[in-house]
């Protein structure tokens, strides 16, 4: 989503690069989904770095605050949420699902999924540190967006 | 895919957020593919959490049941399937390929790939826990959609 | 890319599902890219499963053979290739970059990237097993497509 | 983005494959984002291979140099950058965020995110080797593009 891009930028030459920060431009989408969700039930290693955790990394490149709502889906009950967050302009926040408490904590050792909605375009990436065994395991993926 | 979004939501102000659950809206796509598939042949650690497994995480955010068909492709034989599943409205299911039995189980230690089709839009994410060695390894990715 | 979808399928009711295999339909894209490439130089554990390897998982859901060409890019020399492969109709092949020999093997412990082109639409996923230390590590991602 | 594709290629027969390197064709996008960023603070194993690192793998398949600018976003301060890089025509570079020094190094053990802009289309993939514990962990994902 590009707004207010001056015409000369569309025709910029080889030595004239686009500077994102100087434009009224935002990168991203308003609806994201993470179909894989699971908070392991135990950990090994020093906390907080090595505590097993599930994270949604949110990036707001816009000049406005992003108002976020997260909905959590389960296999056997109605969805929980919305969990409300605000991300300041030009900031990233790496949200640990472990820390979401309001309206209710997310149960451990339980399959879930999430939908993340924002009123300005953002970027969402999903990751997990699993330290249930002596050595940690990591996963990440860009989330689904539309 | 958005249906029946009231006009005021398209013009919602900074403090008025979109609530997904209150709308007749669905998020996702109807055709998904996972080109990487492999069920390891052995495991370490307590079951069922630490049993090596290959998972398709399916999320149905719609108000309708999703009827799913999975087709499994191999390197040296005709495809297997369809494997049929139903996901209730507003639910997620994390399907272990290990547990697909009908029309036939998926062989272990064998390369495969999968196509997942649904009659309503869904979101699909692929993940694997590999516990063949003492410490588990994890991978995940959003699946290909169209 | 959908061809020859009968009209009744577009209006199929709740209990009438789309069967991919029965249609002249193909899923995927013709150009894919994997920017991350690296074949580790040593391994631990039983071969071939635990040999460190870098894989492109290719899925051809069409009714035709797919003719594939892979080009390998480096940081400090001209590209290598094309490496030519054929994937039969309705088959998957999990190609280990370690095994590409013609026109030249891919060097170990060297950064590279790849572009994969096909004459019919396919799906490509990238994965790696790294067994340089005692416990294996895994990564995967859907490739970039256009 | 395809330019100058000769007409016969659009109608190429089953045995006539598209050769990317012989055309004035570029693959990719000009804006990429990685919402997950984190450089671990300690490592195990032989360097440089086993040093914990965070990487952006950049692939420039075009016939022109790509001029790249990276902006780093944080949770609690203004963005840093732009970090400027040049990738020669038909080359890949696997950039370690650890090594970005100008205008300022990226702090360790700190959440960040990045936006990568290029004046020609490129492909970007994100990966990390985490060797804080005895066994290394890996993650990767295609970045978000638009």
Distance between the termini of chain A: 12 Å
The shape of chain A, in one word, is globular
Spans of at least 5 consecutive residues with low confidence of chain A: 1-24
Assembly classification: homotetramer
The percent range for strand residues of chain A is over 45%
Judged by helices, strands and strand pairing, the structural class of chain A is mainly beta
Number of strands of chain A: 8
- Tell me roughly what share of residues is in helical segments of chain A: under 10%
Mean pLDDT of chain A: 78
Please give the largest β-sheet of chain A: 8 strands, antiparallel
Largest interface (CB within 8 Å) is between: A-D, 39 and 46 residues
Radius of gyration of chain A: 18 Å
Tally of separate helices of chain A? 1
Helix-strand pattern of chain A, N to C? HEEEEEEEE
Descriptive overview:
The structure is a homotetramer of 146-residue chains. Chain A is mostly beta strands and 146 residues long. Helices cover 3% and strands 46% of the residues of chain A. The first copy, chain A, has 1 helix and 8 strands. Chain A has one helix spanning 7-10; strands at 29-37, 53-60, 66-74, 80-87, 91-96, 112-130, 137-142, 144-145. In chain A, strands 1, 2, 3, 4, 5, 6, 7 and 8 form an 8-stranded antiparallel β-sheet that branches. Chain A is globular and about 40 Å long. Residues 1-24 of chain A have low confidence and may be disordered. Chains in contact: A-B, A-C, A-D, B-C, B-D, C-D. Chains A and D meet through strand 2, strand 5, strand 6 and strand 7 of A and strand 1, strand 3, strand 6 and strand 7 of D.
């Amino acid at each position: 989503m590009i707004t207010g891009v001056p015409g000369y930028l569309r025709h910029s030459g080889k030595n004239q690069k686009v500077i994102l920060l100087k434009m009224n431009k935002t990168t991203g989408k308003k609806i994201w989904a993470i179909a894989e969700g699971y908070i392991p039930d135990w950990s090994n290693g020093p906390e907080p770095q090595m505590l097993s955790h599930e994270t949604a990394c949110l990036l707001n490149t816009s000049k406005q605050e992003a108002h976020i709502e997260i909905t959590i889906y389960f296999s056997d009950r109605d969805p929980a949420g919305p969990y409300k967050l605000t991300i300041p302009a030009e900031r990233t926040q790496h949200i640990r699902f472990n820390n979401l408490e309001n309206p209710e904590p997310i149960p451990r050792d339980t399959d879930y999924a999430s939908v993340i909605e924002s009123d300005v375009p953002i970027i969402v990436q999903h990751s997990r540190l699993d330290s249930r065994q002596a050595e940690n395991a990591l996963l990440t993926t860009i989330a689904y967006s539309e």
